[in-house]
Specification:
The complex is a heterodimer of chains A (about 300) and B (about 425). Chain A has about 300 residues and is an all-alpha fold. Chain A has a single domain, classed as ABC transporter involved in vitamin B12 uptake, BtuC. Chain A is built from 13 helices and two strands; from the N terminus they run H-H-H-H-H-E-E-H-H-H-H-H-H-H-H. Chain A is globular. In chain B, the strands form three sheets. In chain B, strands 7, 8, 9, 10, 11, 12, 13, 14 and 15 form a nine-stranded mixed beta sheet that branches. Chain B has a five-stranded parallel beta sheet with strand order 2-1-3-4-6, with helices on both faces. In chain B, strands 5-16 form a two-stranded antiparallel sheet. In chain B, helix 6 links the parallel strand 7 and strand 8. Chain B has 15 helices and 16 strands. The chains are: A mainly alpha (about 300), B alpha/beta (about 425). Chains A and B meet through helix 1, strand 2, helix 10, helix 11 and helix 12 of A and helix 2, strand 8, helix 7, helix 8 and helix 9 of B. Chain B: This is Branched-chain amino acid ABC transporter substrate-binding protein.
Amino acid sequence: MVNGINLALQFLDSFAFIVLAAAGLAIIFGIMGVINLAHGEFILIGAYTTTLAATQLGLPLVVAMVVGGVVTGVFGIITERVIISGAWPNWVSQRTLGRDVIEPLYDRLADSMVATFGLSLILTQGARIRFGNSIDQISTPFGAISYGSFSYSTYRIVLAGVSIGLLVATYYLFTRTDFGMRARATIQDKETAQAMGVNTDRMYMLTFGIGSALAGLTGALFAPVISMQPTLGDQFLVEAFVAVVVGGPSVVLGTALSGGVLGAILAVFSNLYGTFIGRIALLVAALIALRFLPEGITGFIEQVQKRRQESE
Amino acid sequence: MSRRSVSRRQFLGASGAAVVAGLAGCSAGESGTSTDTASSADTLKIGVLEDQSGNFALVGDPKAKASMLAIEEINANGGIDGKQIETFQRDPQSDNQRYQELTRTAINEENVDALWAGYSSATREAIRPIIDRNEQLYFYTTQYEGGVCDEFTFAVGPTARQQLGIVLPYLVEEFGPDIYTIAADYNFGQLSADWVKVLANENDANVLGEEFIPLSESSFGSTINRIQEADPDFVMSMLVGANHTSFYEQKASAGLDIPIGTSTAMAQGYEHRRLNPPAMANIYAGVNYMEEVPTDSNTRDGGFVDRYFEMYPDAPYLNEEAETNYFSTYMYKKAVEQAGTTEQPEVIDALESGIELGTEEAPEAPEGETISLDGATHHVDHHMWIMRADEEHNIEAVENRQIPEQFLSETVGCNLPENPEQTQYTPVDYYEEAE
């Protein structure tokens, strides 16, 4: 009984960690096709902004977290304009040199990897130079719940709730709103979308901004429970990429499903055999999933649906 | 056309000269420790390789700073035997491969007279073969698992047996005999956990369980559950690095309220300053030094703490390893003066004759009355402290005494002047209970 509760809480914890780690990446990598190796550093910006807003400006934690998300979103938009699409440098060079200097990084997987890796190095070292090797931390709100001889941090359960809320909101935004339709149209077929009157440039910028804001929010939400230092983003990277790749082409649903599957595996194995085995089980599960479902979980679901339609 | 051929000839000439110079450099390097070191007669050169970026920057940066403090003090007071100290200082970025490259550079190109390098035990083991091959005098200044018996290495930080040896018996006495161990999953953590078993056995305590945690892990929910399930009297924590720091905040927010003994927390990464109270409440660190150690030479006006923060007003903390870098630089000074030369075999002989730093002469020993080097094992008999953090993260000294290095000197019988070797001994070879 008590072990069941342990396992359930552990599952919620792992689920929240995987989903939140992957949230921003699902959009930037999954939808936009930019391998963002600076994803961890976007999380860092969210976490540092939140912590500094709370400790230096004295903002209430919730407000500080929103600030963390917004600042990262704005930073994401700047990154998109300067590095990914190159719109701003090109605007300047058009007027001075009469030509573009930057070719957009969309759908150039390897190139986007190199560019964002460089960005991640600059951000990590920049944070180290500006703020030192660590900054003072905020403490975790809400206390703990007890059951039997065990207890669990309430905040970790809140995180699970928030992660589900974020998934639902993102799903709604990209499937049920005009904005979402335009964004998906832009990414699927830029020329046609333009012909239909969509401002595709703006769509790229905003979608990237939303992805960045989600990464920032992840940093904001984890700010109280992880150690505040310049390389804090690294710990999210493995889970983020694994979850997005295992999730497959339908990114939001895919992230939810892979968060569920991988979270369950991580929870069961780390609960029974320790953290180390839990980590190995997670990676082995990802290997097996990609061997037998190369299109990810949602790709597999689509295939099954297609086959069923054909047989009917 | 003619311009091009001239430039080619120039190029050939220049590269030929470079090759000759390179060969000359090589032969100078190979003849090793003889007369032709790069430093001229009135200077000597010290290599300082400590992490200032990467995973260990937080703990490595104070080490580099304290080395520079000692060097600056020595230079301001006339140097070593009238020789000013030059430094070769680089940032290996917590990367063992960069450590290996920079170690080769320090030895072969910079011809350093002595080398200080490395935070983690993994780093030390990565560069020790290079050190030994080049017969380079090397100071390893981190607290570590112990057992390195190496004719060229002076492991002057406290060992696990010294650190755990002061804190574990105290916690058994205070709280009871049931222990749960959590440790970082690499050589340091594994061997430290073995020492917990050895010391538990010596103190009639028992280890209920142990868990080894990868350095990349930062979620401790299942670990906390397992500790609660085992219900020990106290926990021994040898967690390492930035990611593992999350454990303390997470166990506090989960309401896990249990005394924790440690050889790694607070004294190195000053978690009691960085985290909000009460995350570190009831944590007992077994250390030779941390900024709060209440000795006169440490806390008085113009003492060690004052001098450090005068030179580095923006430094966040003066940690355990910083003190070791500091006093070992003075040990080296004393050895060179005693030897009357910077020739490394002679300096090593002088160090092996037993160097002692005390209150009588500069510098004082910040951790206690005296710090003495044991020539046979190249280790230090440290003055050890138990430092406890309370609910507000105030630090108090609970207990202190001199603890000699025991494993190499008594159990293994390491005697380097008699019997030169380059081995690391582990507790598993000597204690059944460590298996």
